[in-house]
Amino acid sequence: MASNQHFPAVSDTLPYPVYFRLDDYHAHQQFDYQSHPWGQLTYCSTGVMEIMVAGQRYLSPPQYAVWIPPETLHDGYIRQDVTFHSAYIDASLCAQLPARPCALVLSPLLKAILGDFAGRGVTTPATEADRRLAQVLVDQLQLAPCSRNYLPGSDEPVIAALLAALQADPGSNRSLAEWAAQLHVTERTLARRCQRELGMPFGEWRQRQRFLAALPLLERGDTVQAIALELGYSTASAFIAMFRRQSGGTPDQFRRGLR
């Protein structure tokens, strides 16, 4: 059973305008709704966290961070063991950051800064060098593109069961009709529930999931052909076409960007 708790808090004020946290959480922990006077960047370097913010549920995989503006109500659910990074950013620094919650694409530099502070156990930047690095992080967040490739979730039992099965096997090519039969609903009912709960059709959600699943495989150096087969595509060209639709570029362009 999920345990409810609060996101870790520091106090009513931050000890420095950019404050960092690193926490390890076990699966199935539930965090209560809350808001803060500062902005919050949440990022999982391992695992996936689900965050409900402004009425939209986001899954936060390692390639994306979820940006939560100041005074925005949010909660969280840990679907699997995670290493969870937070950067709390004073409201005075948030004017140039997104005014609405969104998924941000994390550049290699942003990941490196978060990883560096985490590796050294820095929460409050105390040295001039660390304060400059914290400012670089804020500058880079201003440049980070918002992504439409967030992956919404749902607590509705039928849709939750469908999404869990797809997360366990992203390469599954079962049709919506086949899933409906397994879940004991009609295909039309399942299609309606997907649209209502996820804000998109089943096929769009599955494409986004496969796109997100491909990113760590590309980072790892797997071949495009191997990734295509693992994610249920019969040809590399079909996978590349999906990747281009989702990202605007090819898998090789994404990999070159990492370098």
From TrEMBL:
Which InterPro entries does the entry mention? Answer: AraC-bd (IPR003313), Homeodomain-like_sf (IPR009057), HTH_AraC (IPR018060), RmlC-like_jellyroll (IPR014710), RmlC_Cupin_sf (IPR011051), Tscrpt_reg_AraC-type_HTH (IPR020449)
Which molecular function term from Gene Ontology is one that the record holds? sequence-specific DNA binding
Q: Name one Pfam family in it.
A: AraC_binding
Concerning PANTHER family, the annotation shows: ARAC-FAMILY REGULATORY PROTEIN, HTH-TYPE TRANSCRIPTIONAL REGULATOR NIMR
Please report the name of this protein according to its UniProt entry. Answer: Helix-turn-helix domain-containing protein
Please state every residue range assigned to the domain named HTH araC/xylS-type: 160-257
- Keywords annotated in UniProt: Activator, DNA-binding, Repressor, Transcription, Transcription regulation
Calcium as a keyword? no
Q: Does the keyword Ubl conjugation apply?
A: no
